[in-house]
Amino acid sequence: HRKYVAFQPVAKKDRRWPDQVIQQAPVWCAVDLRDGNQALVKPMSVAQKQRMFDLLVKLGFKEIEIGFPAASQPDFDFCRKLIDENRIPEDVKIQVLTQARPELIERTYEALRGARQAIVHVYNSTSTVQREQVFGLGRDGIRDIAVRGAALVKELASQHPETDWTFQYSPESFTGTELDFAAEVIDAVNEVWRPDQGQPVIINLPATVEMSTPNVFADQIEWICDNVRYREHITISLHTHNDRGCAVAAAELGVMAGADRIEGTLMGNGERTGNMDLVTMAMNLYSQGIDPKLDLSGMAEITEVVEACTEISTHPRHPYAGELVFTAFSGSHQDAIRKCLARRNEGDAWNVAYLPIDPFDVGRRYEEVVRINSQSGKGGVAYVLERDYDITLPRWLQIEFSKVVQGEAEQNGGEIDSHTIHRLFEEHYLKV
Ligand code: KIV
Ligand code: ZN
């Protein structure tokens, strides 16, 4: 295993994040239409993009990255369509990505002409591997690309004062960049933009590739928060990818470590293993009593639109959104859920075994929770008869009848629906 080297935690004695809980929701930025779209086998059509944009607005996102217009004509056309057809609500900022290259920055401003407000997101890659093996440049060369890009972003914005501009810079491949160099580039960009003089600035720190455990990522975020100039005037944003399967965990620890804003996508679509899943992170906050300021109560609609736009189906075990995530087949789980629900009073704190949140809060019903197969016990079968047919069985009959249902389930090998349970009950006990 010498082929791979572990990332070390950043030495720091006065840590901020390990004993924190998140106090409030970060600012969200949805990048479904850019990072999500660029990773699809078949990029979204205009109709699909519009549907996704409308969903994101409906859910409450106020910052939405809509594409990379200088690199893609469909992205350029979609940006123009949103602006020309006046489809952007007043309280929503569109964000567009551009590399720090003059011709691309110029084209980006063409795409944004006439926008009421916009975030210009400029990036260049800063990691050792990219510097040495992709660009063949030293630290100075890479820093100069960022500074020249920042200067042009500022100059072109000044030519369009009708738009309310926010500038965003990403040191792409931040997680592979030495921290002192990342801070040097960020400082150099901010010396051009001068957030202390009123220019809104977002510094976005991407785990372009997730390379370390989430605690090391949080160390890096904390270090940057403590070591860049103008910290109190800038928004620190995170953009995590899921290569190690920890994008949400990294984002959560990153917020504890000091970040203000998170970029991600619905259901985690995005490059390779995807971006940070906004649904999971927002619902994690919700389940800890923090208002995520997003409306995820219509999860069925969210998954339907995301599936229609990405042409990727939702995994049945996807946190909070999958078909099976509130379902119990096993007898002991069914029994415990049934008892907790029966004892629950309106207004009680949620405290139901095996159900981390109330399924109702994402538009699901208690009734779906209990489903029957050969793993299920008497409690579940009795619950289904009571729920769907108003038939209450005495305990001795629950025991007897559950064996009948179990036998049927073993034979059929799958799920037994409530109609079949009722038929079996009729056949065994009601027919003469
Ligand atoms: O993953 C990444 O680094 C990106 C940047 C362009 C922000 O998508
Ligand atoms: Zn990305």
Automatic annotation (TrEMBL):
GO process annotations (BP): L-leucine biosynthetic process
Main location: cytoplasm
Domain of life: Bacteria
Keyword tRNA-binding listed: no
Cofactor(s) this protein requires: Mg(2+)
Record key words, sorted: Amino-acid biosynthesis, Branched-chain amino acid biosynthesis, Cytoplasm, Leucine biosynthesis, Magnesium, Metal-binding, Transferase
Catalytic activity: 3-methyl-2-oxobutanoate + acetyl-CoA + H2O = (2S)-2-isopropylmalate + CoA + H(+)
Residue ranges occupied by any Pyruvate carboxyltransferase domain in the UniProt entry: 26-300
Binding site for Mg(2+): 35, 239, 241, 275
The keyword Secreted is assigned to this record: no
One GO molecular-function entry: magnesium ion binding
Pathway entry: Amino-acid biosynthesis; L-leucine biosynthesis; L-leucine from 3-methyl-2-oxobutanoate: step 1/4
Gene Ontology terms: cellular component: cytoplasm
Its EC number(s): 2.3.3.13
Location in the cell: Cytoplasm
Function, in words: Catalyzes the condensation of the acetyl group of acetyl-CoA with 3-methyl-2-oxobutanoate (2-ketoisovalerate) to form 3-carboxy-3-hydroxy-4-methylpentanoate (2-isopropylmalate).
Family membership: Belongs to the alpha-IPM synthase/homocitrate synthase family. LeuA type 2 subfamily.
Subunit structure: Homodimer.
Annotated protein name in UniProt: 2-isopropylmalate synthase
UniProt source species: Marinobacter fuscus
Lineage per the UniProt record: Bacteria, Pseudomonadati, Pseudomonadota, Gammaproteobacteria, Pseudomonadales
Gene name in the database record: leuA
Parent-protein residues present: 5 to 436 of 564
